[in-house]
Amino acid sequence: MASSFLKIKFHNIGSVLIKTAGTYAVSGFALIQLSSIVVDNISTEQVLGITSESFMQLLFIVIISGFPLSLILAFIFKRNSISKETLKDYESLKKIITNKKPKIGLIPFENLNDDSDGAFLVDGIVEDLITELSMVKEISVATRKTCFGFKDKDYTSQAFKEKWGFDYVVSGSIRSSNDKLRISVELSDMDNDEVIWSNKYDKFKTDIFSLQDEIVTQIIFSIIGEIEITSLKRAHRKPTESMTSYEYTLQGRALNQKFEKEANAEAIKMLDAAIEADELNPLPHSWKACTLGQSMFLGFKERDEVMPAMLESLSKANELNDNDWNTNRILAEANLTMNNFEQTKLYATKAYRANPNNPHVLSIYGESLLRNGDVETAIKIFEKMHELEPIVAADLNSDRPIQAKLFAYYSDGNLAKCKELLSLLEDFSSKTWISILDLHVKNNESYKEESWYVKGLNKFKGINWDDEIKTYHLSDKNMIESLTKTTALFA
User: Fold this and answer.
1) Long-range contacts for 194-200 (Cβ within 8 Å, ≥24 apart)?
2) Domains in the chain, please, with CATH?
3) In the 8-state DSSP scheme, what is residue 195?
4) Residue 121: CB atoms within 10 Å
């Protein structure tokens, strides 16, 4: 496992090391050739006090000894430059969290083929549009779960504006025929309840990626005018030229998002088929890693059964596109579980820069900020995450994002806010329980008669708190000591 992460971590550095080794070898060989000519014409005994044979032997030793040193220096330089490049706009990234931005919702497009088997293509294209729009930092985009909740339902513009806070809504339809697509798109302003842009496209399926770029560009231009082309994050997506690979990827992704055991297994088959159709397509590798991780998290498969294949997929996805938001998100989460907090922040920042509106990216980005001491920004990130997606994935309530916020406020020492959030929970984890208990102890507030305390005392009875606290993957030693001390009160 460690070697797999080293491979992922250093694959960008590897090319630099290879170039350094090549350059050093050529330079060393040239230096030896030049020196052999010099010693034939100059007496090294008179100049340096050693024979020409001893000089050449010494030169060989110096060159050979200097080789690993040159690689070490190249490695350090490249590693530092990658970290610096990733975090260079960290302060500007923090500013986009709270800036007021237009909020957009996408209604799943109508499938004009009335073909249930081909619905994955229609939904997949819409999901790609959601992802592409979510990469634009100048706007706020409703999550996939929210958008697909509108499917086959009829809402008024007033509901979109008042209930979900949408400033704009995108809707449309798709008809596919053999290798062609006909797509109609319209953008509506919820304030005026009017269409402000619309278009119809007749394209070959192979043009789908350029078409998505065009639609996203037109939507953004209609809302906020011209923006820097870098905001569209085209460099972060490396689309396949194989429509077979693309369609299998869409099917695999759709199955992944059902969060069911059979669907999970079928998703892996679809993603394997996508990889077989185009091994250089990074997306199926990324989604396969995500799907395998899901099978562990939801208990469909044992960790030892899944981990090697997951790491292999993750490594390949990162090798093919190290800017992919999903790959970097998973890498950040994996590094967090290994307490590699600096690497967690690097990967999470790359994911956030690529996709600042995805709740799963926001989750790990917030966790990385907490582990690296930026509690204030972490709180803002978790607030935004909860706003974008109150109920995560297959969850039935908002407990997960609320507990993430609660722990951030615990890290800030804000007992009043923690109490407020605790009252909103249907249930709580050991981490939440011991955190809020720790704040009560620190603030000398009574707790033994509180219902949450009694419930937790029974729920977590017999737990090994030393081992449990290790699973929180905390970086602050004082926090760990405080939690450990608090658990000792009822051990």
Assistant:
1) 196/168, 196/222, 197/222
2) 2-88 (no CATH), 103-235 (3.40.50.10070), 396-491 (no CATH)
3) E
4) 23
Rounded Cα gap, residues 303 and 214, in angstroms: 42
Helix (H/G/I), strand (E/B), else coil: 395: coil
Residue written as tokens 């292999």?
312
Which tokens go with 286? 């990324």
**Per-residue model confidence as pLDDT tens for the chain (491 residues):** 555 555 555 555 555 556 666 676 777 667 777 777 776 677 766 666 777 777 777 767 777 777 777 666 655 655 555 555 556 665 666 666 666 789 999 999 998 887 665 688 899 999 999 998 988 888 889 999 899 989 888 888 888 888 889 999 999 999 988 889 999 999 999 988 899 999 999 999 888 888 998 999 899 989 887 655 455 555 456 788 899 999 999 999 999 999 999 999 999 999 999 999 999 999 999 999 999 999 998 999 998 888 889 988 988 998 889 889 999 999 999 899 889 999 899 999 999 988 999 999 999 999 999 999 999 999 999 999 998 889 887 788 999 999 999 999 999 999 999 999 999 999 999 999 999 999 999 999 999 999 999 999 999 988 999 999 999 999 999 999 999 999 988 76
Distance of CA 86 to the CA centre of its chain: 14
Instruction: Please report where in the chains the tokens 């100049």 appear, as a residue.
Output: 47
pTM value is 0.80
Q: Are 411 and 375 in contact (CB under 8 A)?
A: yes
Task: Answer for the pair 375, 408: CB distance below 8 angstroms, yes or no.
Answer: yes
Q: Does the CA dihedral 144-145-150-151 come out positive or negative? A: positive
